[in-house]
């Protein structure tokens, strides 16, 4: 998870929180945001299962040349 944090920081993300929880249910939680592109990233990891859960929130993305339409 530290490598993920370092890479996000290298790409200009600001780390909002990093929590490394020790013990039987050890886990890691990372929250970061990029003011440049309005993305936010949340990563949760479990040492017990070697799993990572990535959540990414983005602004509405349109393909190049497309215009926003209202319905």
Structural features, described:
With 71 residues, this protein is mainly β. The protein has one domain (2-57). It contains one helix and four strands, in the order H-E-E-E-E. Strands 1-2-3-4 form a four-stranded antiparallel beta sheet, with helices on one face. A hairpin with a 4-residue loop joins strand 2 (27-34) and strand 3 (39-46). It is elongated, with a radius of gyration of 16 Å. It starts with a helix and ends in a 14-residue tail after the last strand. The model has no long low-confidence stretch (mean pLDDT 88).
Give me a quick take on this structure.
13% of the residues lie in helices and 44% in strands. By secondary structure, the chain is mainly beta.
């Amino acid at each position: 998870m530290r490598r993920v944090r370092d890479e996000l920081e290298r790409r200009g993300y600001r780390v909002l929180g990093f929590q490394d929880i020790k013990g039987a249910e050890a886990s890691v939680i990372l929250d970061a945001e990029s003011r440049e592109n309005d993305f936010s990233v949340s990563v949760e990891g479990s040492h017990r299962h070697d799993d990572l859960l990535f959540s990414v929130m983005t602004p509405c993305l349109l393909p190049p040349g497309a215009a926003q339409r209202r319905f």
